[in-house]
Structures are given as C-alpha cells and as structure tokens.
Amino acid sequence: MLQSIRDRAQGLVAGVIVLLLCLTFALWGIQQYLDSGHTVAVAKVDGEEVTLQEYQTSFQRLRQRAQAELGQAFDAKQWAQESTKSKALDFLVEQKLLEHVVEKGRIRVSDQQVLGQLMQAPQFQVDGKFSKERYAQVLSMLGFKERGFEQQAREDMAIQQLRAGVAMSAFVTESEAQQLAQLREETRDVGYAVLPMEPFKAKVELKPDEVRKYFDEHQEQYRTDEKVTLQYLELSRDALMPQVQVDDEKLKAYYDTHTAKYTVEDQRNVNHILVKLKKGASAEEEKAAFEKAQAIRARVSGGEAFEEVAKKESDDVGSRADGGETGPFGKGVMAPEFEAAAFALKQGEISEPVKTQFGYHVIRVKEIKPGGVKPFAEVRADVETAFRTEQADTLYAEHVEQFNNAVYEHPDSLDNAAGALNLQVQTAGPLTRGEIAEKFAPSAIDAVFEGEVLTQGMNSTPVEVSETKTVAFRVTAHEVSRLRKLDEVETEVEATLRDQHARELAAARGNELLERMKKGEDPKAVIAGDKLEWKEAKGAGRESAEVNRAVLRAAFRAKAPDASAPSYAGIALGTGDFAVMQITNRQLPPAEKIAGSKVEQQRKALMQDRAMLGWKDYVTALKESAKVETHVDRL
C-alpha cells in the first residue's frame, strides 16, 4: 500500500497523505496498523476458519456470474445489501461443509477427468475446438491462475459426484408418473372477466397525513441512484482497421491462402410438383399417386406452363404459391432421392416421378449454379474485410499492452495515454451502475467504483469489455446516493398510494361479484351489471394460449369442480386489475389414453425435482449437524 502511495502521490496531495498518516500513528499508535494485518475470520466451519479474503473472492465471483447471467437485468444495489452478503456467506459455508464430506469420503477426481471437462466446456472453445488462448483469456477475466482454476474445477467436480450420489436415492413410481401425466393433460372450461383498476382511481381519497406517513415508512424507495461522470479511453479492433495498409498484392496473397472461404458447391434451383402420399399408404393408394404424377408430367412435358400446373396441383404448400420453386440448394439439403434426380438433370429437363418419404415429385431444373472457387474480382470486397479484420486483430493485441502501460504510467490523467496511442478522450454521464453496465460491460462497474478511481480521480484498471475492446476510465464527478425529500417526490408518492388503493377497491369489488356468483346468480348477468366482458374458454389446458396466463394458473389452482357445482376463484393481476372466474367441466383423460412417452417425460421431471429437493435437504442436514459460526458484522 505504501509503495502505491509513493508511486501515485505528487505535490500537495503527497503532503496531505503523509500528514494524515502521521496524525493517525500519533493518535492510535503504529501497533494498530501492524495488528490490522492479521487474518479476519468471517466464519468457522467445524473448526476451520473462513477468512474475509476467501469470502471476498467468493462474493466477487458470485457477483460476476450473476452479471453474466442477468445482463441488463442485473441489480447492483441488491448486491450491496446486507441480506445478499449474508446469503453469499451461507453459500461459502455450504461449500466448506461439502468439501469436508468429499475429503472424508475420499472422493477423488483424476487429472484426466478434469482435462476432459475443461476441453469440452464451450466457454473455452473456438470453432468447436478447445483453444488454449481462449482458456487463458477467460481465466484472466475471472481473476484465476491456471493452477487455481483447475483445482477449483476438481473440487466442483468432486461435489458434483457427491450430488449425483444423493440424486440416485430419489425414485418415482409408475403410478405417480401416470397420475402426473394425467394432470398435465387435464382440461377445464374457464369463464372469466377482468375488473380494470383504472376506473377505481377516481374513487380514491387520500387522507391528510397519509402521504407523509407512507413516505416516512418507505423512504428507501425514493433514494437516488449513485451516479458518476466519466472520462474514458477506448481501444478497439474496429477503430484500428482503417490503419491496415491494403493493396491488391496483399489481398491476392490472402485470397490464395484462404481459397476454402471462397469456394462454393454446385447448386440447383428447381420447380417441383408434389403428389402427397401418406405414411403407411396401401398399394392402391401408392399406385394412384404414381399415376397422378405421371399424368402431371405428361401435361408439363406437353407444353403446359410448369409453374401454373404446380400452383393448381402441387400438394407442397410451402412452394406451391411460387410455382413449386425451391430456391438454390446444394447437396445434403433435400431428400436423397430428390437430390439425386435434381443433380442428374440438365437445365430445363423434367424428371420421371421421383418417390420420397413425402410422395411423388415431378422435378424440372430451372437453373444450375456451378460450384468452384469464386474469382478474386467477385469477392475482393469480402477478402479486404477479412484481411483488415485479421490484421486489425494483430494490431489490437500489440496495442493493448501499450495501452495498459500508458494508462498506468500517468495514473491521474488519460491525456498522456490518448496522445501516445492517437486516441480521443471521451466523456459520458452522469451514469448509474446499471447504465455503465449497459454502455460498456458489467465488468466496468467494479473498475469505476474502485476506491482510488472514485474518490481520488485516478485512472481505472483497463477493462476488457469485449474480445475486441478495452476501456480505461477516470471519474470526473461523483453524485452519491441520497434520500430525497418529500417535496421532491410527493407526486410519485401520491400516485403510488392511488394505485395501491385502486387495487384494493378492484379486489374488493371483484370479491363481491364472486360472492353473488357463488350464491347462484348467473355470472354473465353479474358481470354485465358492471359493464364488463365475460369471456369463455372451453376445454382449456394448462398451456392454453387463449386465456390470460395468470388467470389460467389460478383456474388450475382452484378447487376442481364437479358435475353438480362449479368452482370460483379471484386473482389480483400484476397490472393491478382483478380477475374473477368460474371453472366447470373438468376433464381428466383416462390413463390408457396417455402416451407412454408423456408418462416417461413426467417421470423424469418428477425425478429431477425430487433429486433437487433431496440435495437441498442433505445440505440442510449437514448444516444442522455441523458446528458453524458466522460473523456477518465482519463482512
């Protein structure tokens, strides 16, 4: 730390820092600083300490994973909450417990298993093959050394073996799977109406102190987002492409060494007429289809326009409107019999009826597109783009190191780095954390909000925001998060309360209508009295698209109706509206009507659920039987 201060401190800033250090030593004693270097334990698991450093590393990796999975939906504020930090510590404690079980059970993972797992991971592959360069790049982004990552992979695989063993204890009986499959195929008649929330807003009257009371109880909802204004320097491959020197000699040499990129196979564009033949057709049906195809061939061979006959006679709905035209295709695309006939014909020739799994085809070759290497003149533009990209990739790799060094050498300004690499310092902001992630990448957030960058105006660590772009930041203005005053948000608070009360009024009115229906009044008449629309869906299944999803879920959660009495339900929708519904005519298909594949599908799904629950119970039991201490206050 002291070396960092020496490297960065200059002039008056250096004097102030040294003075503060001297005052601190004088007041508290240097021993306080020496003692602060001891290991801080945030938990103890069966006697093994979990250090703060371990927790911070684990927390950061969990956060990065969440950013990668959620993208723009990632909420940085959530990860600053104490509850999230506590959950992250619980996760680390669970990992320690599982590692102890693995060690005691002598569960081992060989080098070959680890290697095989890493080689197959798509994150480390380029064009479907393991890439050592990509592997190193991903590990660098995750903050891992190779040995450390491989050890982590080994531990994770061992825990997965343990999990697989627990999962094997789960089982599902045939009758359970059968019953679940029946329930999945169940149908119900659903009649429903939606009471919109909006008309109830006019009936809401807020009490004098209600706005103030709600604001006082929910101040955190009206906190401003922390924002920063940035200067940033961006090095990208695309910006380097114009610097690539291009001439025909270089492009021709590139073209000659990459001819595979510019080679095309033979293609055919045909018109065809299909006489459809169903699967398992009888000999008589097949004979009739063949004779019809022969008659059609005679017509088009005799002078009738092929396209017009196709429009009238072809059973191929996909091409019929276009006169049976398929569009250009190469080998390996069409049915083998169709392809063989098409590639055997000359342009303009008409085939004999050709049988495929779809029926009999009459084929005419409309156009032949010979294959081979495209001439250089034809693909010059593509060659230039590919050449520039390849050369720019090389330039980018060379410039990244220079970019990083320039940013570090002058840590309190981006101007020197910009001059050294002929780049332009750009500005952005004020931006929230989410806006930084959206504009640059989630990984940019940590770089921008690092202490010295945020408060001292220092350059950030350069961040690789994509495979072809690196950015360094400098904060020029920082707006801290603050609680807004009531007069700033009074309109918002009033709108929230009106919505809340309108939802309650809509739900109350909906429940009144439901009570009337339950007493025997006709639902349509009840709904008509409130000038609402009553909708009905006959035989609705659990996945029916014709019913609002929330209404459908509520209808299948409701008590199953019987022949003598419908069931009723009401549900508040996410929009604030309220739906009332009547459920009748429950139909459960007989077990013998359910296909075996559906039963097996449900058995697998239920097995998976039980395996997950079994694992959760296993981990919970481990925690309950272990000696675990946690110190959330030290996080």
Which helices and strands, and how do they pair?
Elements: H1 2-8, H2 11-28, H3 30-35, E1 41-45, E2 48-51, H4 52-70, H5 82-104, H6 111-120, E3 125-126, E4 129-130, H7 132-142, H8 146-167, H9 174-184, E5 187-195, H10 198-201, H11 210-217, E6 227-236, H12 237-240, H13 248-257, E7 263-264, E8 267-276, H14 283-301, H15 306-313, H16 317-320, H17 336-344, E9 354-356, E10 359-369, E11 372-373, H18 376-409, H19 415-421, E12 426-431, H20 433-439, H21 443-448, H22 451-456, E13 463-466, E14 469-479, H23 486-518, H24 523-529, E15 535-540, H25 549-557, E16 567-572, E17 578-587, H26 596-625, E18 628-630
Antiparallel strand pairs: 1-2, 1-18, 3-4, 5-15, 5-17, 6-12, 6-14, 7-11, 8-10, 9-10, 13-14, 16-17
Helix pairs in contact: 4-5, 6-8, 9-26, 11-23, 13-18, 18-19
Strand order of the largest sheet: 15-5-17-16
Total DSSP helices = 26
How much of the residues is beta strand, in percent?
15-25%
Mean pLDDT: 83
How would you sum up the global shape?
extended
Poorly predicted regions are 1-37
- Terminal CA distance: 21 Å
How would a crystallographer describe the biggest sheet?
Answer: 4 strands, antiparallel
Query: How many beta strands in the DSSP annotation?
Result: 18
Structural class of the secondary structure composition? alpha+beta
Percent of residues in helices comes to 40-55%
> C-alpha Rg, in Å?
35 Å
Explain briefly what this protein structure is:
Helices cover 52% and strands 17% of the residues. The protein contains 26 helices and 18 strands.
